[in-house]
């Protein structure tokens, strides 16, 4: 659905921090450090992201020949055509470039928050509604979300509405779990992270632009002064040059002409 290394990795790492932070609410989030960072981030998520991106890269470079099935001479070609029938007509690369503008940065942060909330809802709904992991509703919900990738852009509002509705269900049926206060050191960590993110946002989209404009203005002024100095120097050079009528021979010629 995301198709971006940076976004997928951020969501993967951030979810592990959420598991650390919410261990006091959901007991199944309490795992060993190697389970968090080796099994989840590196092996499961990392390998899944790598294989997924390589698959997208392979599909985006592949040329499709949309010819009739019975016009293909070989059985191998017919089977390959049948398999490709269930793939998209084309794969388009998309670069998020989150730091290109403030609006895009806020949009990307919003997308990350919605994805993290959707993943958290999976565990909270199981815990609140007493659903075992193998229950068919758990798998059905995930399949429903995966199928939204075909029209995620047009249905982004629908995904956000479903995610918020799921959160409201958790709040309604088990407000006690959600109101368990964060441990003090966890609250400090999230406060520090929020301050750092806000500081970087202000520097990147406000202070940095002001600094760059100030440096550009100074450079233009310095360039104009240098150009003006070169222009004045060239004028002075022409005034005192050898072509000026200021030598003794020229004065003698003028005196002879005046006498005549």
TrEMBL record:
Keyword Transmembrane: yes
Sequence intervals crossing the membrane: 105-124, 185-206
InterPro entries listed in its UniProt record: PSS
Uppermost EC category: transferase
Keyword Cytoplasm: no
Catalysed reactions, as listed in the record: 1-octadecanoyl-2-(9Z-octadecenoyl)-sn-glycero-3-phosphoethanolamine + L-serine = 1-octadecanoyl-2-(9Z-octadecenoyl)-sn-glycero-3-phospho-L-serine + ethanolamine; 1-octadecanoyl-2-(5Z,8Z,11Z,14Z)-eicosatetraenoyl-sn-glycero-3-phosphoethanolamine + L-serine = 1-octadecanoyl-2-(5Z,8Z,11Z,14Z)-eicosatetraenoyl-sn-glycero-3-phosphoserine + ethanolamine; 1-(1Z-octadecenyl)-2-(5Z,8Z,11Z,14Z- eicosatetraenoyl)-sn-glycero-3-phosphoethanolamine + L-serine = 1-(1Z-octadecenyl)-2-(5Z,8Z,11Z,14Z-eicosatetraenoyl)-sn-glycero-3-phospho-L-serine + ethanolamine; 1-octadecanoyl-2-(4Z,7Z,10Z,13Z,16Z,19Z-docosahexaenoyl)-sn-glycero-3-phosphoethanolamine + L-serine = 1-octadecanoyl-2-(4Z,7Z,10Z,13Z,16Z,19Z-docosahexaenoyl)-sn-glycero-3-phosphoserine + ethanolamine
Function, as annotated: Catalyzes a base-exchange reaction in which the polar head group of phosphatidylethanolamine (PE) is replaced by L-serine.
Protein family according to the UniProt entry: Belongs to the phosphatidyl serine synthase family.
Protein name, as recorded: Phosphatidylserine synthase
């Amino acid at each position: 659905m995301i198709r971006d290394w940076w976004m997928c990795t951020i969501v993967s790492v951030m979810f592990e921090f959420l598991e650390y932070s919410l261990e006091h609410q959901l007991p199944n989030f309490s795992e060993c450090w190697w389970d968090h960072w080796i099994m989840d981030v590196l092996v499961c998520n990392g390998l899944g992201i790598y294989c997924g991106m390589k698959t997208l890269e392979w599909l985006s470079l592949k040329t499709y020949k949309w010819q009739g099935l019975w016009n293909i001479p070989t059985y191998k070609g017919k089977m390959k055509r049948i398999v490709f029938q269930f793939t998209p007509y084309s794969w388009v690369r998309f670069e998020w470039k989150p730091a290109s503008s403030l609006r895009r940065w806020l949009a990307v942060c919003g997308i990350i928050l919605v994805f993290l909330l959707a993943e958290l809802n999976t565990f909270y709904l199981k815990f609140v509604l007493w659903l075992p992991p193998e229950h068919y509703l758990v798998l059905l919900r995930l399949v429903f979300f995966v199928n939204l990738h075909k029209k995620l852009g047009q249905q982004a509002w629908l995904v956000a509405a479903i995610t918020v509705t799921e959160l409201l269900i958790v709040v309604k049926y088990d407000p006690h779990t959600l109101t368990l206060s964060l441990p003090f050191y966890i609250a400090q960590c999230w406060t520090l992270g929020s301050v750092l993110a806000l500081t970087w946002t202000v520097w990147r989209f406000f202070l940095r632009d002001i600094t760059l404009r100030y440096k550009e203005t100074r450079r233009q002024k310095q360039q104009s002064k240098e150009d003006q100095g070169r222009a004045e120097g060239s004028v002075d050079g022409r005034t005192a040059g050898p072509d000026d009528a200021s030598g003794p021979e020229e004065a003698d010629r003028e005196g002879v002409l005046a006498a005549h």
